[in-house]
Amino acid sequence: MLHSNERIIKHKIGLLNLAEELGNVSKACQLMGLSRDTFYRYKSAVESGGVDTLIDKNRRKPNLKNRTDPVIESSVLSYAIEQPAHGQVRVSNELRKCGVFISPSGVRSV
Length: 110
What we know:
Elements: H1 10-22, H2 25-32, H3 36-49, H4 70-82, H5 88-97, H6 104-109
Helix pairs in contact: 1-2
């Protein structure tokens, strides 16, 4: 019987324990709503590296190349605080008059 307090992997361990308890992988997978392929992937991960390998390590890191320049971001935020009723197109146009070039969709993203 496997144990873990990690919220992320509790259902994965639950599937493995249920299959062990029932003695039937197909029935356990059916009850949990998962495929047998998923069960065997979890089982091989636990056998190869223990319970800690069930934690998802493929979390994507943000792409900072697409991020707006912090100077432009701060100017958009300060303008939005001053004029909360202006829409993204008007904010873009008003900032362009001040020398800050950002598209209306860029304003919305900020």
